Amino acid sequence: MIVNSWNEWDPLREIVVGSADGAHFEPTEPGNRPTIRNAPVGTPFPTGPKSPEAIDRANEELAGLVALLESRGITVRRPDPHDFGAPVRTPDFEVPNQYCAVCPRDVMITVGHDIIEAPMSRRARYFEYRPYRRLVYEYWNADPRVTWTTAPKPSMDDDMYRQEFWDWPVEERHRRMHSFEFCITQDEVVFDAADISRFGRDLIVQESMTTNRTGITWLKRHLEPRGFRVHPVHFPLDYFPSHVDCTFVPLRPGLVLTNPERPLLERDARLFHDNDWELVDAPQPTTGNDEMPDFCQSSKWLSMNVLSLSPTTVVCEEQEKPLQDLLDKLDFEVLTVPFRNVFEYGGSLHCATWDIHREGVREDYFPNIAYRPLV
Ligand code: DAV
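That is the input. Now the predicted structure with delta-amino valeric acid docked in place:
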């Protein structure tokens, strides 16, 4: 089987690595208020295409990752070109341009032999599945056991968003930290694939700025009849959650790399404690939030966005020495590549990839569990 991937750590055989070709600045829209780091409040965010130099710098580092993966015998596939400069207009919204294909993880997820295209949460990313369609057809045509699921597209009209979210002062965010209500409402199915993390029979899904409860309900109804269990997870101190892979990163059976500034809600942590999983805090990143690239909308915790090649081998960003040392102490073989020029496109090593094939089968890593299925 070509399409076979049940978790985040089994031995990797085939993967898609993103590309910065044609990348544009993300437009300001109800689900996204990009800002320039360290610029005076109100400084407008750039619009239009990224500079050819910025695209080349990112592509060079993506090519470095491709070379490393290929040197380990892993098959690497790339997205197709796409006109990200084209505006999008539907009956419900309009945006002047799209974004990029640097982070396939946000859009696409393999769950066993099922390829799922996420609905997405932002207008500029509505058509971001397109650069991957040729590959999906190829995999789907190659093997009748491969299934292909496109989650329902939400309207992304104004009512889908809670615009006040962007103006809440910190105290308000603190007061609301247990409501898990962000910039999207609960009326439609909304999720980005990167809010999901796969643990064999079990998947966790983070409620966030990019995934709502209705999206999690859709995932439950899709996956439970197929024998999976879907667990919503919450990190109350993350006031701007988006994508779980800088917050909670499983590395092998029994071990999760955790974010010391974003502890998992105690209620949700029970699943891991009751099943003898160890949660190990990542060290502080080598770069403070203020030193991240000017146009990067992600936090310094991109440091922990590592890519597992197997339960014993991890790829880590070249400058993140403290994390490399921790992984080394935990008995991993640690490979490194420079990747900081990719950060402004929204992610690091895990975000910029999409697993197609990891050896292995669906296993139950959580035998001690009280799970209430929806039906
Ligand atoms: O912690 O800033 C970034 C992940 C974006 N794909 C963070 C999440």
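The pocket of delta-amino valeric acid is lined by residues 103, 106, 194, 242-243, 246, 298-299, 301, 346-347, 351 (CB under 6 Å).
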